[in-house]
Recover the amino acids of this structure.
């Protein structure tokens, strides 16, 4: 089935697409109904995107006094992120109609909101903009992989629409990062530390809490602990790793560190390979490392590369 990208002809000037642009009637439920992992991927994303207003309130408060930034956050970023949540929710309800989305979301949000505090933001506005760039890198990569992985054309189209929004959001956050970097005279070492902190938060509390509540409806009464969470995450990374745009992601990560062209060429291929291992565990799955000697080699290699990257950041 051929899908045509939606246009903005029925949308406000700042809005590229609406829910009316998605052909919900064309969802092929038979293709996705029994795919438990796909259910988790879409449902958890719908929960987290729907909770964006909590993030947005924190950011708007943090950047209070900067009218340009707060206006964009409130009228553009927040609006589009909440639309992502509504669209993903509608897809979940159409593809898995027995799933009580509203009831499960209430349980998720009650737990999630306790972890979303202003104090979790970076100590300076510049560094928070760098952190936001990494978030948008992760989400744009996630929806790229999700769309490529999906057997349903409607979900592929929806993922494409969301991905394009996330890439555009990255560009805005990066623009504001540059402005604040100049105002606050932020060093590359400080930016590197903020970028690294955010990269380490990729498997943060929000995704764990969302998965726990989605898992409970599929496996009522079964305990959900960190071991099970890591098991499901490992499977998701193994399956999505081949679809994740690693090179694009690395470019987006390196951009706030503003390396020169020569350094960019030198480190990009190495960091791209490293991202396959750090973000998705792709090397471990593909190579099927079993022996103790080999299993110890790649952690040492990773540590060596990280040390070199840290030296570059300084």
């Amino acid at each position: 089935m051929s899908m045509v990208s939606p246009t903005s002809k029925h949308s406000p000037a700042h809005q590229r697409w609406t829910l009316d642009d998605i052909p919900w009637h064309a969802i092929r439920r038979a293709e996705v109904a029994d795919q438990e992992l796909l259910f988790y991927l879409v449902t958890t994303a719908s929960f987290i995107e729907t909770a964006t207003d909590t993030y947005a309130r924190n950011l708007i408060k943090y950047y209070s006094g900067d009218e340009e930034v707060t206006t964009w956050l409130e009228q553009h970023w927040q609006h589009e992120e909440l639309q992502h949540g509504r669209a993903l929710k509608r897809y979940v309800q159409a593809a898995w109609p027995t799933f009580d989305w509203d009831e499960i979301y209430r349980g998720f949000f009650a737990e999630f909101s306790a972890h979303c505090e202003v104090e979790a933001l970076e100590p300076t506005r510049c560094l928070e903009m760098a952190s936001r760039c990494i978030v948008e890198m992760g989400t744009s990569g996630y929806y790229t992989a999700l769309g490529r992985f999906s057997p349903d054309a409607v979900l592929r189209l929806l993922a494409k629409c969301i991905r394009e929004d996330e890439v555009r959001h990255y560009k805005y956050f990066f623009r504001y990062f540059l402005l604040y970097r100049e105002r606050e005279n932020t060093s590359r070492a400080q930016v590197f530390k903020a970028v690294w902190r955010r990269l380490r938060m990729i498997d943060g509390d929000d995704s764990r809490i969302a998965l726990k509540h989605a898992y409970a409806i599929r496996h009522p009464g079964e305990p959900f602990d960190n071991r099970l969470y890591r098991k499901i995450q490992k499977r998701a990374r193994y399956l999505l790793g081949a679809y994740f745009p690693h090179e694009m992601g690395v470019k987006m990560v390196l951009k706030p560190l503003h390396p020169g062209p020569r350094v960019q060429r030198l480190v990009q291929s190495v960091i791209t390979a490293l991202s396959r291992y750090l973000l998705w565990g792709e090397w471990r799955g593909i190579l099927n490392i079993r022996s103790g000697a080999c299993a110890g080699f790649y952690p040492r290699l990773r540590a060596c590369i990280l040390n070199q990257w840290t030296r570059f950041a300084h």
